[in-house]
Amino acid sequence: MSDRTEDWGLRESATFDRRTIHEIQRAADTGIYDIRGFGAKRHLPHFDDLLFLGASMSRYPLEGYREKCATDVVLGDRYASRPLHLDIPVTIAGMSFGALSANAKDALGRGASAVGTSTTTGDGGMTDEERGQSRTLVYQYLPSRYGMNPDHLRMADAIEVVLGQGAKPGGGGMLMGQKISDRVAEMRTLPAGIDQRSACRHPDWTGPDDLAIKIEELREITDWKTPVYIKVGASRTYYDVKLAVKSGADVVVLDGMQGGTAATQEVFIEHVGIPILAAIPQAVQALQEMGMHRRVQLIVSGGIRSGADVAKAMALGADAVGIGTAALIALGCNHPRWSEDYQRIGSEAGFYDDYQAGQDPAGISTQDPELAARLDPEQAGRRLANYLRVMTLEAQTIARACGKSHLHNLEPQDLVALNMEAAAMARVPLAGTEWVPGSTPG
Amino acid sequence: MKKLSLAEHSVRELNSALHDPQAMDGGTEWYVSDPDGRHALACGLNDELQVTIDGHAGYYCAGMNQHATVVVNGTVGVGVAENMMSGLVRVRGNASQSAGATGHGGLLVIEGNASARCGISMKGIDIVVGGDVGHMSAFMGQAGRLVVCGDAGEAFGDSIYEARLYVRGQVESLGADCIEKPMRDEHREELRGLLAHAGMDFDPSEFRRYGSARELYNFHVDNAGIEQGDSHE
Questions:
Q1: Domain CATH for A97
Q2: What ipTM was estimated for this complex?
Q3: Could you tell me how far CA A30 lies from the centroid of its own chain?
Q4: Helix, strand, or coil here: B71?
Q5: Of A155, A434, B83, B142, whose CB is crowded by the most CB atoms within 10 A?
Q6: What is the total count of domains within chain A?
Q7: What is the pTM (predicted TM-score) of this model?
Q8: Would residue A278 count as lying in a domain?
Q9: Chain B residues contacting A, CB < 8 Å?
Q10: Distance in Å, alpha carbon of A388 to nearest chain B alpha carbon
């Protein structure tokens, strides 16, 4: 197609390109906005725009494979008597049973547990498969309170109060009718087959003062043993983090706009929120001003793909990262082995984002029993564990090259930016200069 | 009966004891004095206890209750019996907003009035209010029954799923997708049982029934809330 149009000398509009024209035509045909899964697909300033300054004369590197470079992290020791001790700082972000199949949740638990990290429930409650396979399980406390159960609260290793999600800060979740199986409906106390909409506001508190009392209640119910996280979608991050700390959070979870979703309006995914690169320095500044950096831990997510991303996030001041989309890809999402099946439903391996439709050929974002059976939880769990190990090794490789004996010792001074946008957002110098746009004179 | 004064003991000490009643010589009856509006009283109970709080309680009193009976001789703050699973919570006075929010089971009785969002996102709890309820009550109510012996505020039952609502007095306005439904014998019988359980002496025939029109259950353009008056002029 592109060859022919170029041969004919046709010029495609940069403003009204073919995808834009297709969307206008789709909207005109249907009269309803597009809902899809995955995360933001537009180009955004990201970790790729940062580079590390490896050691040479002025810094002393550690030997690449043998010298100690620790990766463990403690989360939630501000108030909780039982903080989490994770072996690696890469956690599995909240994803619901409902959005994902039971086998997928099972596999996430297996993979995370194999490498000593945590996984997280989602909207819809805790499943036996998930609790059974997850050595360390974070229980999300969401506005919908679907499946919310005090027994599960007490069984959780941490509680994550969800205020927002990077893919849709300010919006509630969706789960389309084709994924509301009888089991999902029963867990959420909803009629089967309806298009479920989750609340975007918590039902019994408004504002940080109320949230502080809500957290006090959660701590009382769990006898002050269990760490309490607060998760926010990246938008007004500086203020949100300050208020989260004031409300009593042990841990702040910050999800950038590249974070994934199972079902959200396309316009929301692509146009609301800010990139994680721009959000982390705001969060760190807020924590530092309150004297809480490293006392209240910061977990960041939204577009983390590799050990390089992990290292960059930690150099900017995060204590750990969360992965969602990348974890699903490790399980088998968008794998070429299902290419023909993707084509049959109008997509292709590498492009599939219709998580809302429940027709996932890889058996991950579906409640169809036949499709779900395609995912072997044991095998998928091994794939995830492998991927998490690779990310950790990659991050260690970079940290050692910067002379760090612990991933937490990475610092902003180890980073430079490739362009002005990334330099301004990440608050690190443009490569080859001392210039931090927005902070120092040009 | 175990007696504990919150003038002398902390909320932590109270809840800690209530969470492990065997450690307190197996006592199941508790009398709590001097609550003075403290928050999170008797929350997360998980045994068949009888707890009386003699005075006013703050936010989230009896939150996430399971099995226990909690009686408050006073008013309560936001979110009394929120996410209750089972048991009975009785408030002798008035309740602030979000009473019984997201409750999955059990019975919440408010002998006075309840403020806004009473029964918000209710998921199986039964709530009987002797007086009025504020605006947006039973918002997104999924299951369970809400009985209002007085009046209901505006946007009653907005975006309701399958919760069943009974009101004896006036309803200021109904929320999206909430409609009045016929009151049949089975509903009067259901209501009679709820009122009796709550200790309310009202005639079921004086009540009207409300529930979901089930027209917002699927996304399509007619449900998007775009009204003619919103068009540009």
A1: 3.20.20.70
A2: 0.94
A3: 31
A4: strand
A5: B83
A6: 2
A7: 0.95
A8: yes
A9: 11-12, 15-16, 19, 39-40, 43-44, 46, 58-60, 63-64, 66, 78-79, 82-83, 85, 97-98, 101-102, 104, 117, 120-121, 123-124, 139-140, 142-143, 161-162, 217-221, 224
A10: 36
